[in-house]
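Notes from the 1:1 (GR / supervisor)

We went over the backlog. Supervisor wanted to see one worked example end to end before approving the batch request, so GR pasted a single chain during the call. The sequence is below; no edits were made to it. Supervisor asked that the structure be written out right there so they could see what the output format looks like.
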Amino acid sequence: MAARFEADRAHLTAVAYRLLGSAAEADDALQEAWLRARQGDIGEVENLTGWLTTVVTRVCLNLLRARRNRREEFLDAPGQGHEPAHARESAPSDGAGDPAREALLADEVGVALLVVLDTLAPAERVAFVLHDMFSVPFDEIAPLLEKTPAATRQLASRARRRVRGRTPAPTADGGRRRAAVEAFLAATRGGDFAALVALLAPDVVLHADALVVPTPEPITVRGAEPVAQGAMAAMARAQVTGVALLDGRPGLVMAPQGRPRLVLAFTFDDHATITRIDVVAEPDRLREIEIDVFEDEVAQ
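Structure output shown during the call:
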């Protein structure tokens, strides 16, 4: 069992991460699944990988339901406006995990997709992830959710509409602008100052709300070099940031565990040069921004 579990670890981690959106929580889920698996009776199990996937999924489903209950309890509490960052974070991930590994896993899935998956109900997320991402048949998923295969199919269909339904068709300008945003993120992550400056208009303006930087008021920065210097200072933040559609336009979102913390909305000229960047972290403003997935990233 130990040897087989290790052989399947990469697959099981991929399942757990897509279900939970957190590398640390995925590791915890695999640890719990291993404790359950080694106590299980596998004498008549024909597909051990499928059986282990089921064990991991059950653990993740329990975690998703507990997470959802915590959020609902917080939102129902008197006098609460928006859920603060420390309440949104799941306990097993506080101060734990490898940031580089977290960023790598987020890139594999897509930060925007994690954001959308986090809006799904636990059963919808399980049905969509297992069927659409790992090709698990509905009749194998249904017992996990205590549903019929037909009802499970409906859950996946509902999730699929949420993931894909609002994504606009790509346009020529959209492709160029997306490429510019991807280049901006790559240059920021790599600390390539010259590449950043080349993407920016000479008179580019960056506006950041008061929660982005430790100042009591919003800040405005003007000029390609000062804006590029500010981006260089955010290299660590860029490691957990991904490209997304923000109200239908290419932008960047930082969303640990699939929960948006800030976004960068870009304005371009006719040559896809960046003329303005708005950095938003205020919760009320974030909730007004529709974050979606690019069409070609849905099936990752």
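Supervisor's comment: Residues 74-96 have pLDDT under 50 and may be disordered.
Batch request approved.
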